[in-house]
Write a structure and sequence with these properties.
Radius of gyration: 17 Å
Structural class: alpha+beta
Number of helices: 3
Helix content: 25-40%
Strand order of the largest sheet: 4-5-1-6
Length: about 160
Amino acid sequence: MNELPKRKQIRLTDYDYSQNGYYFITVCTHNRQNLFGEIVGATLCGRPNNPDKMVEKWLLELETKFCGVKICEYVIMPNHLHFIISKTGDHAGSPLRDVVGWFKTMTTNEYIVNVKNNRFLPFDKKIWQRNYYEHIIRDENDYIEKAQYILNNPLKWELEHRDE
């Protein structure tokens, strides 16, 4: 029997992802489907009925759903989003995987409803990739670097996709 390939471990083994701190997160659509719009003039122009606004709504709702969570910076792109999340408080909060998992569940559920009502583009099996990328922000310079990356991402996208 053939063994399945082992998935690369992308989390720090002994790190407590429920502790206070700043985290840079990237969540990508399944198969890099451009579901949320297109970049024009370094700005996301949403698709009809604004699936990007739905994603933004649930992203900002994380602050209400999870105690001590704040979305500091973010950008929604055609097939992914980047954000910096701050976790603060006197006690350990929800692990980061639970926060991102809830976001993916809520956006998937609403996206499916909108596809069934012919408001959003159909998707290929899933909305989101199975995992997400995370980077623990270690200091102020690291934060500034990640915030600049978020701010410049639409322009970078436009330059990279100019001839498509």
